[in-house]
Known about the structure:
Layout: E1 7-11, E2 21-29, E3 37-39, E4 46-50, E5 55-58, E6 64-66, E7 70-73, E8 80-84, E9 88-95, H1 101-104, E10 115-117, H2 132-149, H3 156-166, H4 178-191, H5 196-212, H6 219-229, H7 234-245, H8 249-255, H9 258-264, E11 269-270
Parallel strand pairs: 1-11
Antiparallel strand pairs: 1-2, 2-9, 3-8, 4-7, 4-9, 5-6, 5-8, 7-10
Helix pairs in contact: 3-5, 5-6, 5-7
Amino acid sequence: MASGEEQYQEFAPPPALRPFVRTVWTYAAPDPSPTIQRIAPDGCPELVFDIGAPYAEQGEDGLFRLQPPALFAGQMTRPLVMHPTGPTELVAVRFEPDGARDFLGLPLSAATDRRLDMVERLAGLAPPPGDPASQVAVFVAWLEDQRRRTVWRIDPMVRAEVTAAEAEAPAPAPARAASAQRALQRRFADRVGVSPRLLRSVFRFRRVFDHAARPGEDVEGWLEAGLQAGYFDQPQMARDFRRFLGCTATDWARDQHALARAIASQARVAS
């Protein structure tokens, strides 16, 4: 990586982790912009290890506080607002929406809209600076050891609902008896952290948001993507942008840089 160059990469997990892990990603910015970043929900919890300077996250009181250097980020129902405090270097695991329950050892609802401190659990893990492939190798080896030590499983009913909700042209949620719907709600709270309906809303929003993150896209293009994603009209789409980003699509596209855009971009470098 050239000096001062920003770099984001994604790496596929090994076969044993694929039911649980969507991707492992790295990000480095030796001289990051101090711009405040808005990270939108994407339906996936993450485990993040900070090799460089930690980010400062805005709390409900409006104050910014340093994040722990190792954290578990649960499902998000609102934007995460933060800014870098120095040279940035991250390695992170993006779990499947329902893939982190047995790693965490807690109901995923306990982590919704929270960043849980993982410093003690990841003590001794030392991904080498400046080497994304080696960072991922260290992280994957540790994660596979964690999987072997405990029983990780996937709930077939929850996975089927997640897969259907994330489909490019999702079918309407099937009608269920009240008792069956309550049972699914409980299983989602445990294994996903949000309700099936909210997860569908996040996926629908992301289909438009990822489109908006592409360079050169205009409002007309976003509206067309929104209609294809299942929005009825522009006001409905605008409400979700404010709900999940705290600003309009135009404001986000104008102001966001660095990590927020790198994560959102569809032009990722996969290895």
